[in-house]
Design brief:
Main location: membrane
Distance between the termini: 31 Å
GO cellular component, one term: membrane
Largest sheet: none
Pfam family, one: COPI_assoc
Shape: elongated
Oligomer: single chain
Number of strands: 0
Subcellular location: Membrane
Membrane topology: Multi-pass membrane protein
Structural class: mainly alpha
Order of helices and strands: HHHHHHH
Radius of gyration: 23 Å
Number of helices: 7
Length: 178
């Protein structure tokens, strides 16, 4: 059976691949929009191409600069809102623009929904996810998953019940160790 850590790393790598493909499609759709567009469409298109190219580079490589100044890129909610922005930027009357805009908008909404789940690891560049995948996929190396927020509640409750049992039996028997 495959461990939860391996599944998370596989899904993270899939998200990285999908992000790179979607950003490349944004570049293509913006070029199609600029071909028949006016001056304002061309200026916004250049802005969109530069931003999508920077997002591809950010998806491929880890930069301390982006984590420090553009922290929203390291959260699913921030990436989701950026995808929604790209989807709105490329939407136009052409078939390519409609298809790419819809795909990018759907991915953005998926990321925004995913941001409300706390059990999934934060988004990382593909180099970090690939390194983690290689570390965890070694033969027979299923490292335990870090403890989530729900696990600490169970530990606290069990400690509380052990404390109550200890108080009840303090005069009769030695306290149970937690």
């Amino acid at each position: 059976m495959i461990s939860r850590s391996k599944v998370e790393h596989i899904v993270s790598l899939i998200f990285n691949g999908v992000n790179i493909i979607l950003y490349a499609l944004v570049v293509v759709a913006v070029i199609f929009k600029c071909i028949k567009g006016n001056f304002a469409d061309i200026v916004m298109g250049i802005y969109g191409i530069v931003m999508a190219a920077l997002m591809i580079v950010n998806e491929l490589q880890e930069f301390e600069f982006s984590y420090h100044y553009f922290y929203f890129l390291s959260t699913y909610r921030g990436r989701g809102f950026l995808m929604v922005f790209f989807g709105c930027l490329v939407l136009d009357t052409g078939i390519v623009n409609i298809v790419v805009g819809t795909l990018v908008l759907a991915a953005g909404l998926l990321y925004i929904i995913l941001s409300f789940t706390s059990n999934f690891p934060p988004p990382n560049p593909i180099t970090i996810n690939w390194r983690n995948w290689n570390d965890f996929s070694a033969e027979g190396l299923d490292l335990p998953h870090h403890r989530g927020a729900n696990d600490t509640v169970v530990v606290r409750l069990s400690s509380y019940f052990n404390f109550i049992l200890c108080l009840k039996t303090v005069y009769r028997v030695k306290c149970m160790s937690a």
